[in-house]
Design a protein that fits this description.
This protein has 421 residues and is mainly β. The chain contains two helices and 18 strands. It has an 18-stranded parallel beta sheet. The longest helix has 14 residues. The relative contact order is 0.05.
């Protein structure tokens, strides 16, 4: 759309008294001052143009409730933006903004703000004046610090700060009593403030790919937490207080440095997903057997030498991954895991399979490659639902005749075994 066509369209909108204007994806590089004459506008969409700035006259549009200027080339915002007293949604993602003007704090009715994928390095203290802000998206910027006034966002329920450069959080973050979801993945956090325990309504927190070496005991004060993501940090242990977080359903601590788990983890009886792969665990506490609601348990790439008997109590398990450990034998009690449909035991040191493995009749995918098996029990023919049986890189010289049908159907993968014809 060229400037003459745009001027004609703005005149028509003004004459008609229209309350919406869609200028998305029109190839616009600038907007004329006459935009500020459209006093009836409630919604303005400028998505996907090549705008580098907004005219100061945009501040005249005081009836505007929604402004969408995402996916442009904006490098700054006019101070007059703060005059949009009725604005509820402001969408600025995918621009080139290096800061937000302090006047943004005058948008007292703002409920949603998205300035993700920009170049923000800081936030103005005035952001704390946005008392109605419920959704805040600031992902993938370069924000290194949050102002203490951030803790005054009393209506905030969802906060997305992943992909920034935060090394710490202000203690005032604990004042965000309405917060239910907090996304902090891919920052530089080395510690969490004790005040974080004030987030008593928080349901989900993402802290993956930071530099956390420990969790404060006060972290366990997040009594409403149901999903906790801690993967890709430097944790060597968990505080025993984690056992008080009894509403947890999902606990993800993959790719840390955990050498052991506290016995109190057995108090988390509502857990259904537990991911611990990529740690340094050499064993599991007896209390792990209390987690009878578990559906998925991932212990891949640790230093386990035993298939813990306590795991055999977890008869709701559908997925179990123990690959890349140092397990040499399997207990007969593993036959209790009758709900399993995916089991990873590849890349261990297993020499023999118990007959009871054939009781796992719901099994669909069974991974046993790269072990030291020289035979397998014919009871495995009971696995009528099996679609893939991985037995490559073992020491098998023969297979039971009962598995003949599986072999013919290419269900069994047998590469690199010394099988006789």
């Amino acid at each position: 759309m060229n400037q003459r066509e745009l001027a004609s369209l703005l005149a028509k909108v003004k004459n008609d008294g229209s309350d919406t204007l869609d200028l998305s994806r029109e190839g616009l590089e600038s907007l004329p001052p006459e935009l500020g004459d459209l006093l009836n506008l409630v919604e303005l969409d400028l998505t996907g143009n090549r705008l580098t700035q907004l005219p100061s006259e945009i501040g005249n549009l005081t009836n505007l409730t929604r402004l969408n200027a995402r996916n442009n080339q904006l490098t700054s915002l006019p101070p007059e933006l703060g005059d949009l007293a009725n604005l509820r949604g402001l969408f600025l993602q995918e621009n080139q903004l290096s800061d937000l003007p302090p006047q943004i704090g005058r948008l007292r009715n703002l409920e949603r703000l998205n300035s993700s994928n920009n170049k923000l390095t800081a936030l103005p203290p005035e952001i704390g004046n946005l008392k109605r802000l419920a959704w805040l998206y600031l992902a993938d910027n370069a924000i290194a610090e949050l102002p203490s006034e951030f803790g005054r966002l009393s209506a905030l329920t969802d906060c997305y700060l992943q992909g920034n450069k935060l090394s710490s959080l202000p203690s005032e973050i604990g004042h965000l009593a309405s917060l239910t979801e907090l996304q902090l993945d891919r920052n530089n956090l080395t510690e969490l403030p004790m005040g974080i325990a004030g987030l008593t309504n928080l349901n989900v927190i993402y802290l993956r790919e930071n530099n956390l070496a420990d969790l404060p005991a006060q972290f366990a004060g997040l009594a409403s937490l149901t999903w906790l993501y801690l993967g890709g940090n430097n944790l060597t242990e968990l505080p025993q207080e984690i056992g008080s977080m009894t509403r947890l359903q999902g606990l993800y601590i993959e790719n840390n440095r955990l050498g052991k788990l506290p016995p109190e983890i057995g108090n988390l009886t509502n857990l259904i997903w537990l991911y611990l792969e990529g740690n340094k665990l050499t064993g599991l506490p007896f209390s792990i057997g209390n987690l009878t609601q578990l559906i998925q348990l991932n212990l891949r790439d640790n230093e386990l030498t035993d298939f813990s008997l306590e795991i055999c109590n977890l008869d709701a398990l559908v997925f179990l991954d123990l690959a890349f450990n140092k397990i040499s034998s399997l207990p007969p009690e593993m036959g209790n895991l009758t709900a399993l449909n995916e089991l990873h035991l590849n890349d261990n040191r297993i020499r023999e399979l118990p007959q009871e493995i054939g009781d796992l009749e719901e099994m669909i995918d069974l991974f046993l490659s790269n072990n030291r098996l020289n035979k397998v029990p014919e009871t495995m023919s009971n696995m009528r639902n099996l679609e893939r049986l991985y037995l490559s890189d073992n020491l098998l010289t023969e297979l039971p005749a009962a598995l003949g049908d599986m072999v013919e159907q290419d269900i069994v993968l047998l590469d690199r075994n010394p099988l006789s014809e």
